[in-house]
Amino acid sequence: MTIGHDCALFHADLDDSDRSIRVFYSFVSEHDDFQLSCRTSQPKKINMTDAHTPIPISPKEPRLWVDDGWTARVIKNEDDEGWAVEMTKDGEPEPALVGPWTMGRDKKNPKPLDATAFHTLVKTAYEVRRRHEQHLHATLHKKVVVVSGGATVTVTLDIVPDEENPYAMLTATETRKRDDPPLANVRVASSFKLTETSALAWIEGGYRVPE
Predict the structure, then answer these.
(1) For the segment 65-95, what is each residue's pLDDT rounded down to a tens digit?
(2) HSE-up of 36 (CA within 13 Å, CB side)?
(3) Beta bridge partners of 159
(4) Rounded distance, CA 87 to CA 118, Å?
(5) pLDDT at residue 126 above 90?
(6) End-to-end CA distance of the chain, in Å?
(7) 21-54: pLDDT as tens digits
């Protein structure tokens, strides 16, 4: 009996449950004068790299805890002999929160971070960020409402904090016609002080650019 010499592997599958490789063969026999021939197909490729790529684990250590897009780091307090903790949002260069941290039982080392403390710090950091954003918005965006010529006019000042050339946009809109185009929109210095008096002076002056 002779056997065809071109038999080959049909395909191989990786079984994730036991990490074993199962090999399958495909044979087609033709019983003619005791000859056996084999039909083959191209082997299926196995991505062994994906199968063995380790999943990164976020550190959860006594002084470094990373989870939920935040990093808590216990550091030495530069102002005294105690400790501090800083909370940094992923992708941001500066911490959103820096505050004192509790001393450990030995009165020497800091109290270790844990899941409960971390989630409390995340909640506090979110609140600090929210207040900061509200304060920044109030600083950069101001609004007054005045009455001129029998019409109620809303005047807004939007500051653009450009590092090299900061400026502001002064806009007047008739309050009852907010969907209409603005009455005026001019560029002013970022130091312009928007008050009811300055808004009225701008309107009654024909919306000329304030000096």
Answers:
(1) 999 899 999 999 877 778 999 999 999 999 9
(2) 8
(3) 168
(4) 9
(5) yes
(6) 107
(7) 343 434 444 444 434 344 444 544 545 445 455 5
Cα–Cα distance measured from residue 121 to residue 136, given in angstroms and rounded to the nearest whole number: 22
Token readout for 208 is: 């000329």
Q: For residues 121 and 103, what is the distance between their CA atoms, to the nearest angstrom?
A: 16
All residues at 6 or more sequence positions from 33 whose CB lies less than 8 Å from its CB, including other chains: none
Per-residue pLDDT at 58: 76
Residue 204: in which H helix or E strand, if any? helix 196-204
Residue for token pair 């009225």? 200
DSSP 8-state secondary structure symbol assigned to residue 195: -
Q: Residues in the chain, how many?
A: 211
Residue pair 77/83 in contact by the 8 Å Cβ criterion: yes
- Tokens representing 180? 């209409």
Is 29 in contact with 37 (CB distance < 8 Å)? yes
